[in-house]
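Notes to self after the Tuesday call (sharing in case useful).
The group wants a holo model before anyone commits to mutagenesis around the pocket. I volunteered. Ligand is zinc ion. Logging inputs and output together so the record is complete.
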Amino acid sequence: MRKTILIVSDGLGDRPIEEFKGLTPLEKAKTPNMDHLAKNGITGLCHTINRGIRPGSDTSHLSLLGYDPEEFYHGRGPFEAAGIEMELKHGDVAFRGNLGTVDKNLKILDRRAGRIPDTTGFIKELNGMEIDKVKFFLKPGTAHRVGIVMRGKGISHKVSTNDPHVEGEQVMKIKPLDKSKEAKFTASVLEKFTAKVHDALKKNPLNDERKKKGLPEGNYLLVRGAGYVAKTPTFFERYNLKAACIAGAGLYKGIAKMVGMQILNVKGATGLPTTDVEAKIRNAVNALDKYDFVFVHIKATDNLAEDGDFQGKKEFIEKMDKAFSKLKFVDALTVITADHSTACSEKKHTADPVPILIHGKGVRVDSVESFGERACSRGSLGHFRGLELMPEIINILGMSELYGA
Ligand code: ZN
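Result:
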Protein backbone atom coordinates (compact mmCIF):
# COMPACT_ATOMS: atom_id res chain seq x y z
CA MET A 1 0.00 0.00 0.00
CA ARG A 2 1.10 3.55 -0.78
CA LYS A 3 1.95 5.73 2.20
CA THR A 4 1.18 9.36 3.00
CA ILE A 5 2.73 12.04 5.20
CA LEU A 6 0.53 15.07 5.85
CA ILE A 7 2.39 18.02 7.36
CA VAL A 8 0.32 20.90 8.70
CA SER A 9 2.31 24.00 9.57
CA ASP A 10 -0.14 25.96 11.71
CA GLY A 11 -0.94 29.43 10.38
CA LEU A 12 1.72 29.14 7.65
CA GLY A 13 -0.10 31.33 5.10
CA ASP A 14 0.38 35.08 5.49
CA ARG A 15 -0.02 38.48 3.85
CA PRO A 16 2.65 40.66 2.18
CA ILE A 17 5.08 42.25 4.66
CA GLU A 18 6.32 45.75 3.93
CA GLU A 19 9.74 45.06 5.47
CA PHE A 20 10.05 42.04 3.13
CA LYS A 21 9.32 44.27 0.11
CA GLY A 22 5.84 42.85 -0.21
CA LEU A 23 6.76 39.18 0.18
CA THR A 24 5.14 36.91 2.76
CA PRO A 25 7.32 35.14 5.37
CA LEU A 26 7.03 31.90 3.35
CA GLU A 27 8.01 33.67 0.13
CA LYS A 28 10.88 35.51 1.82
CA ALA A 29 12.28 32.40 3.52
CA LYS A 30 14.91 30.28 1.78
CA THR A 31 13.14 26.96 1.30
CA PRO A 32 15.03 24.83 -1.23
CA ASN A 33 13.42 21.61 -0.02
CA MET A 34 9.82 22.76 -0.15
CA ASP A 35 10.56 24.41 -3.50
CA HIS A 36 11.90 21.09 -4.82
CA LEU A 37 8.76 19.28 -3.62
CA ALA A 38 6.52 21.94 -5.19
CA LYS A 39 8.46 21.88 -8.47
CA ASN A 40 8.11 18.10 -8.71
CA GLY A 41 4.57 18.00 -7.38
CA ILE A 42 1.20 19.68 -7.67
CA THR A 43 0.17 22.84 -5.88
CA GLY A 44 -2.83 25.00 -5.18
CA LEU A 45 -4.64 27.13 -2.63
CA CYS A 46 -6.91 25.62 -0.02
CA HIS A 47 -9.83 27.30 1.74
CA THR A 48 -9.77 24.99 4.72
CA ILE A 49 -13.38 25.73 5.73
CA ASN A 50 -14.78 27.85 2.91
CA ARG A 51 -14.15 31.14 1.14
CA GLY A 52 -14.20 34.09 3.51
CA ILE A 53 -14.48 31.98 6.65
CA ARG A 54 -11.74 32.55 9.26
CA PRO A 55 -10.94 29.04 10.41
CA GLY A 56 -10.26 28.00 13.97
CA SER A 57 -7.44 25.49 14.34
CA ASP A 58 -9.84 22.79 15.55
CA THR A 59 -12.46 23.08 12.80
CA SER A 60 -9.87 23.45 10.04
CA HIS A 61 -8.00 20.32 11.10
CA LEU A 62 -11.21 18.30 11.13
CA SER A 63 -11.93 19.60 7.66
CA LEU A 64 -8.45 18.76 6.30
CA LEU A 65 -8.82 15.24 7.66
CA GLY A 66 -12.15 14.93 5.88
CA TYR A 67 -14.47 15.36 8.87
CA ASP A 68 -17.06 18.04 8.19
CA PRO A 69 -16.97 20.34 11.24
CA GLU A 70 -20.71 21.00 10.75
CA GLU A 71 -21.24 17.39 11.72
CA PHE A 72 -18.34 16.59 14.03
CA TYR A 73 -17.51 19.84 15.80
CA HIS A 74 -19.59 20.65 18.87
CA GLY A 75 -17.17 22.73 20.95
CA ARG A 76 -13.48 22.60 21.79
CA GLY A 77 -13.61 20.85 25.17
CA PRO A 78 -13.60 17.24 23.91
CA PHE A 79 -10.49 17.79 21.74
CA GLU A 80 -8.57 19.31 24.64
CA ALA A 81 -9.66 16.46 26.92
CA ALA A 82 -8.68 13.85 24.32
CA GLY A 83 -5.32 15.62 23.94
CA ILE A 84 -4.47 14.83 27.57
CA GLU A 85 -5.67 11.27 27.04
CA MET A 86 -8.92 11.45 28.97
CA GLU A 87 -11.36 8.73 28.08
CA LEU A 88 -14.38 10.08 26.20
CA LYS A 89 -17.67 8.44 25.31
CA HIS A 90 -20.32 9.47 22.83
CA GLY A 91 -22.73 11.75 24.74
CA ASP A 92 -20.16 13.11 27.21
CA VAL A 93 -19.79 16.85 27.64
CA ALA A 94 -16.23 18.10 28.10
CA PHE A 95 -14.68 21.42 29.12
CA ARG A 96 -11.36 23.17 29.33
CA GLY A 97 -10.64 24.27 32.87
CA ASN A 98 -8.28 26.64 34.65
CA LEU A 99 -7.37 26.49 38.30
CA GLY A 100 -7.70 30.13 39.34
CA THR A 101 -7.73 32.36 42.40
CA VAL A 102 -10.82 34.16 43.74
CA ASP A 103 -11.40 36.27 46.87
CA LYS A 104 -14.23 35.62 49.34
CA ASN A 105 -16.69 37.53 47.15
CA LEU A 106 -15.78 35.33 44.14
CA LYS A 107 -13.91 38.15 42.47
CA ILE A 108 -11.15 36.78 40.23
CA LEU A 109 -7.67 37.71 41.46
CA ASP A 110 -5.73 35.46 39.09
CA ARG A 111 -7.21 33.36 36.26
CA ARG A 112 -4.28 30.94 36.44
CA ALA A 113 -3.48 30.86 40.16
CA GLY A 114 -0.04 32.35 39.48
CA ARG A 115 0.46 29.90 36.60
CA ILE A 116 0.52 27.11 39.14
CA PRO A 117 2.90 24.47 37.73
CA ASP A 118 0.86 21.35 38.53
CA THR A 119 -2.78 20.85 39.57
CA THR A 120 -2.52 17.16 40.48
CA GLY A 121 -2.66 17.61 44.26
CA PHE A 122 -5.62 19.97 43.94
CA ILE A 123 -7.94 17.96 41.75
CA LYS A 124 -7.11 14.37 42.74
CA GLU A 125 -9.84 14.11 45.39
CA LEU A 126 -12.38 15.77 43.08
CA ASN A 127 -12.06 13.20 40.29
CA GLY A 128 -15.13 10.93 40.12
CA MET A 129 -17.42 13.35 41.99
CA GLU A 130 -21.14 12.74 41.35
CA ILE A 131 -23.89 15.36 41.39
CA ASP A 132 -27.52 14.58 40.49
CA LYS A 133 -26.34 11.31 38.90
CA VAL A 134 -23.85 13.11 36.67
CA LYS A 135 -20.25 11.99 37.06
CA PHE A 136 -17.30 14.37 36.79
CA PHE A 137 -13.84 13.29 35.68
CA LEU A 138 -10.89 15.62 36.08
CA LYS A 139 -7.34 15.35 34.82
CA PRO A 140 -4.41 17.76 35.09
CA GLY A 141 -3.35 19.44 31.83
CA THR A 142 -0.17 21.48 31.49
CA ALA A 143 0.41 23.97 34.33
CA HIS A 144 -2.87 25.53 35.56
CA ARG A 145 -5.02 23.69 33.00
CA VAL A 146 -7.51 20.97 33.88
CA GLY A 147 -9.55 18.70 31.61
CA ILE A 148 -13.15 18.16 32.76
CA VAL A 149 -15.53 15.50 31.45
CA MET A 150 -19.21 15.19 32.49
CA ARG A 151 -20.96 11.88 31.98
CA GLY A 152 -24.63 11.18 32.61
CA LYS A 153 -28.12 11.20 31.22
CA GLY A 154 -29.79 14.34 29.88
CA ILE A 155 -26.73 16.62 29.68
CA SER A 156 -26.01 19.27 27.04
CA HIS A 157 -23.05 21.39 25.93
CA LYS A 158 -25.31 24.40 25.43
CA VAL A 159 -24.14 26.10 28.61
CA SER A 160 -22.16 29.28 29.20
CA THR A 161 -18.75 29.67 30.85
CA ASN A 162 -18.15 30.97 34.38
CA ASP A 163 -14.95 32.67 33.25
CA PRO A 164 -15.27 36.42 32.48
CA HIS A 165 -11.72 36.22 31.05
CA VAL A 166 -10.86 39.40 32.97
CA GLU A 167 -9.21 39.61 36.35
CA GLY A 168 -10.93 41.85 38.90
CA GLU A 169 -14.36 40.72 37.76
CA GLN A 170 -16.79 38.41 39.49
CA VAL A 171 -17.05 34.73 38.51
CA MET A 172 -20.06 34.44 36.17
CA LYS A 173 -23.11 32.29 36.75
CA ILE A 174 -23.30 29.33 34.37
CA LYS A 175 -26.45 29.65 32.27
CA PRO A 176 -28.27 27.47 29.74
CA LEU A 177 -27.72 28.71 26.19
CA ASP A 178 -30.94 27.32 24.79
CA LYS A 179 -34.41 26.53 26.12
CA SER A 180 -33.92 22.75 26.40
CA LYS A 181 -34.37 21.03 29.75
CA GLU A 182 -30.97 19.37 29.21
CA ALA A 183 -29.19 22.74 29.04
CA LYS A 184 -31.04 23.97 32.11
CA PHE A 185 -30.19 20.78 34.02
CA THR A 186 -26.52 20.89 32.96
CA ALA A 187 -26.13 24.53 34.03
CA SER A 188 -27.61 23.74 37.45
CA VAL A 189 -25.38 20.67 37.93
CA LEU A 190 -22.32 22.69 36.92
CA GLU A 191 -23.19 25.45 39.37
CA LYS A 192 -23.38 22.86 42.17
CA PHE A 193 -20.14 21.28 40.96
CA THR A 194 -18.13 24.51 40.90
CA ALA A 195 -19.43 25.48 44.37
CA LYS A 196 -18.48 22.06 45.78
CA VAL A 197 -15.07 22.24 44.13
CA HIS A 198 -14.50 25.72 45.56
CA ASP A 199 -15.32 24.46 49.08
CA ALA A 200 -12.95 21.51 48.72
CA LEU A 201 -10.13 23.61 47.26
CA LYS A 202 -10.34 26.17 50.07
CA LYS A 203 -9.64 23.36 52.56
CA ASN A 204 -6.79 21.82 50.53
CA PRO A 205 -3.59 21.94 52.65
CA LEU A 206 -1.56 22.77 49.53
CA ASN A 207 -3.20 26.19 49.65
CA ASP A 208 -1.93 26.79 53.22
CA GLU A 209 1.57 26.18 51.88
CA ARG A 210 0.98 28.56 48.98
CA LYS A 211 -0.36 31.24 51.33
CA LYS A 212 2.76 30.93 53.49
CA LYS A 213 4.93 31.44 50.41
CA GLY A 214 2.86 34.46 49.35
CA LEU A 215 1.57 32.64 46.24
CA PRO A 216 -2.00 32.91 44.96
CA GLU A 217 -4.20 30.01 46.09
CA GLY A 218 -5.69 27.53 43.63
CA ASN A 219 -9.22 27.83 44.94
CA TYR A 220 -11.60 28.03 41.98
CA LEU A 221 -12.25 26.08 38.81
CA LEU A 222 -12.99 28.20 35.75
CA VAL A 223 -14.67 26.21 32.98
CA ARG A 224 -15.08 27.06 29.30
CA GLY A 225 -15.22 25.55 25.81
CA ALA A 226 -18.16 23.23 26.55
CA GLY A 227 -18.28 20.56 23.87
CA TYR A 228 -20.37 17.51 23.12
CA VAL A 229 -18.67 14.27 22.16
CA ALA A 230 -20.12 13.32 18.78
CA LYS A 231 -20.13 9.79 17.39
CA THR A 232 -17.08 9.91 15.13
CA PRO A 233 -16.00 7.17 12.70
CA THR A 234 -12.30 6.40 12.88
CA PHE A 235 -9.86 7.38 10.15
CA PHE A 236 -9.40 3.68 9.42
CA GLU A 237 -13.15 3.14 9.05
CA ARG A 238 -13.36 6.08 6.66
CA TYR A 239 -10.30 5.51 4.49
CA ASN A 240 -8.97 2.07 5.30
CA LEU A 241 -5.68 3.72 6.30
CA LYS A 242 -3.83 2.98 9.55
CA ALA A 243 -2.99 6.45 10.84
CA ALA A 244 -0.70 8.02 13.42
CA CYS A 245 -0.06 11.57 14.63
CA ILE A 246 3.04 13.44 15.75
CA ALA A 247 2.29 16.77 17.44
CA GLY A 248 3.62 18.88 20.29
CA ALA A 249 0.46 20.72 21.33
CA GLY A 250 -2.44 18.96 23.07
CA LEU A 251 -5.29 20.14 20.83
CA TYR A 252 -3.84 18.43 17.75
CA LYS A 253 -3.16 15.19 19.57
CA GLY A 254 -6.76 15.45 20.77
CA ILE A 255 -8.16 15.88 17.26
CA ALA A 256 -6.07 12.95 16.03
CA LYS A 257 -7.17 10.83 18.98
CA MET A 258 -10.85 11.66 18.37
CA VAL A 259 -10.55 10.19 14.86
CA GLY A 260 -8.78 7.12 16.19
CA MET A 261 -5.19 7.90 15.19
CA GLN A 262 -2.33 6.50 17.23
CA ILE A 263 -0.42 9.29 19.01
CA LEU A 264 3.35 8.93 18.67
CA ASN A 265 5.28 10.89 21.29
CA VAL A 266 8.54 12.35 20.02
CA LYS A 267 11.16 13.69 22.40
CA GLY A 268 11.72 17.40 21.79
CA ALA A 269 8.33 17.95 20.08
CA THR A 270 7.05 20.88 22.10
CA GLY A 271 4.83 22.99 19.85
CA LEU A 272 7.22 25.91 20.50
CA PRO A 273 9.70 27.63 18.14
CA THR A 274 12.49 25.60 19.80
CA THR A 275 10.74 22.33 18.89
CA ASP A 276 12.81 19.59 17.27
CA VAL A 277 11.25 19.56 13.77
CA GLU A 278 13.99 17.27 12.51
CA ALA A 279 13.08 14.63 15.12
CA LYS A 280 9.40 14.92 14.23
CA ILE A 281 10.07 14.36 10.52
CA ARG A 282 12.56 11.55 11.20
CA ASN A 283 10.03 9.78 13.42
CA ALA A 284 7.24 10.36 10.90
CA VAL A 285 9.28 8.78 8.11
CA ASN A 286 10.17 5.82 10.34
CA ALA A 287 6.51 5.42 11.32
CA LEU A 288 5.63 4.75 7.67
CA ASP A 289 6.90 1.19 8.22
CA LYS A 290 3.97 0.60 10.54
CA TYR A 291 1.36 3.16 9.47
CA ASP A 292 -0.18 4.13 6.13
CA PHE A 293 -0.83 7.75 6.99
CA VAL A 294 1.20 9.98 9.32
CA PHE A 295 -0.10 13.41 10.27
CA VAL A 296 2.55 15.81 11.58
CA HIS A 297 1.54 19.07 13.22
CA ILE A 298 3.94 22.01 13.62
CA LYS A 299 2.63 24.85 15.77
CA ALA A 300 5.25 27.63 15.96
CA THR A 301 4.46 29.32 12.62
CA ASP A 302 1.08 30.32 14.08
CA ASN A 303 2.37 31.54 17.46
CA LEU A 304 5.07 33.70 15.86
CA ALA A 305 2.55 35.26 13.47
CA GLU A 306 0.12 35.95 16.32
CA ASP A 307 2.97 37.84 18.01
CA GLY A 308 3.49 39.81 14.77
CA ASP A 309 7.02 38.38 14.59
CA PHE A 310 7.44 38.09 10.80
CA GLN A 311 11.22 37.76 11.05
CA GLY A 312 10.84 34.91 13.57
CA LYS A 313 8.22 33.25 11.37
CA LYS A 314 10.51 33.45 8.34
CA GLU A 315 13.43 31.97 10.31
CA PHE A 316 11.26 29.17 11.69
CA ILE A 317 10.05 28.33 8.16
CA GLU A 318 13.73 28.01 7.14
CA LYS A 319 14.34 25.71 10.12
CA MET A 320 11.36 23.57 9.06
CA ASP A 321 12.60 23.45 5.50
CA LYS A 322 15.97 22.06 6.60
CA ALA A 323 14.15 19.29 8.45
CA PHE A 324 12.13 18.53 5.30
CA SER A 325 15.26 17.63 3.25
CA LYS A 326 14.69 13.89 3.72
CA LEU A 327 11.13 14.15 2.37
CA LYS A 328 12.58 14.49 -1.15
CA PHE A 329 13.64 10.86 -1.06
CA VAL A 330 10.87 9.20 0.90
CA ASP A 331 8.67 6.74 -0.96
CA ALA A 332 5.38 8.30 0.12
CA LEU A 333 2.90 10.90 -0.92
CA THR A 334 4.02 14.08 0.85
CA VAL A 335 1.47 16.80 1.53
CA ILE A 336 2.52 20.14 3.03
CA THR A 337 -0.04 22.77 3.91
CA ALA A 338 -1.52 24.87 6.72
CA ASP A 339 -4.77 24.85 8.67
CA HIS A 340 -5.30 28.59 8.01
CA SER A 341 -3.36 31.75 7.33
CA THR A 342 -2.18 33.80 10.31
CA ALA A 343 -1.25 37.29 9.16
CA CYS A 344 1.65 38.88 11.07
CA SER A 345 0.14 42.29 10.23
CA GLU A 346 -3.19 41.34 11.84
CA LYS A 347 -1.80 39.08 14.57
CA LYS A 348 -4.72 36.73 13.99
CA HIS A 349 -6.13 33.99 11.77
CA THR A 350 -7.39 35.25 8.42
CA ALA A 351 -9.60 33.65 5.77
CA ASP A 352 -6.89 33.92 3.09
CA PRO A 353 -6.46 30.48 1.46
CA VAL A 354 -3.36 28.47 2.34
CA PRO A 355 -0.70 27.18 -0.05
CA ILE A 356 -0.53 23.42 -0.50
CA LEU A 357 1.80 21.02 -2.28
CA ILE A 358 1.43 17.31 -2.97
CA HIS A 359 4.52 15.41 -4.03
CA GLY A 360 4.98 11.77 -4.88
CA LYS A 361 4.41 9.03 -7.42
CA GLY A 362 1.30 9.47 -9.54
CA VAL A 363 0.81 13.23 -9.25
CA ARG A 364 0.42 15.17 -12.49
CA VAL A 365 3.24 17.65 -11.95
CA ASP A 366 2.28 21.26 -12.71
CA SER A 367 4.45 24.18 -13.82
CA VAL A 368 4.84 25.81 -10.38
CA GLU A 369 8.49 25.89 -9.31
CA SER A 370 8.42 27.14 -5.72
CA PHE A 371 6.29 26.94 -2.59
CA GLY A 372 4.53 30.15 -1.63
CA GLU A 373 1.18 31.89 -1.59
CA ARG A 374 1.63 33.54 -5.02
CA ALA A 375 3.33 30.59 -6.71
CA CYS A 376 0.65 28.14 -5.53
CA SER A 377 -2.10 30.36 -6.95
CA ARG A 378 -0.92 29.15 -10.38
CA GLY A 379 -0.96 25.49 -9.39
CA SER A 380 -3.08 22.80 -11.00
CA LEU A 381 -5.08 22.06 -7.86
CA GLY A 382 -6.56 25.55 -8.17
CA HIS A 383 -8.72 26.72 -5.30
CA PHE A 384 -10.40 23.99 -3.29
CA ARG A 385 -11.99 23.38 0.12
CA GLY A 386 -10.33 21.59 3.01
CA LEU A 387 -12.93 18.82 2.90
CA GLU A 388 -11.81 18.03 -0.66
CA LEU A 389 -8.22 17.25 0.35
CA MET A 390 -8.73 13.67 1.53
CA PRO A 391 -10.63 12.67 -1.64
CA GLU A 392 -7.71 14.10 -3.68
CA ILE A 393 -5.23 12.09 -1.62
CA ILE A 394 -7.31 8.91 -1.84
CA ASN A 395 -7.52 9.33 -5.62
CA ILE A 396 -3.76 9.79 -6.04
CA LEU A 397 -3.22 6.73 -3.86
CA GLY A 398 -5.41 4.79 -6.31
CA MET A 399 -7.93 3.91 -3.62
CA SER A 400 -10.88 5.94 -4.82
CA GLU A 401 -14.12 4.03 -5.45
CA LEU A 402 -15.73 4.20 -8.86
CA TYR A 403 -18.75 6.48 -8.95
CA GLY A 404 -21.16 4.80 -11.37
CA ALA A 405 -20.19 1.95 -13.62
ZN1 ZN B 1 -4.14 26.81 13.60
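Two things stood out.
The mean pLDDT is 96.
The CA atoms of residues 49 and 207 lie 45 Å apart.
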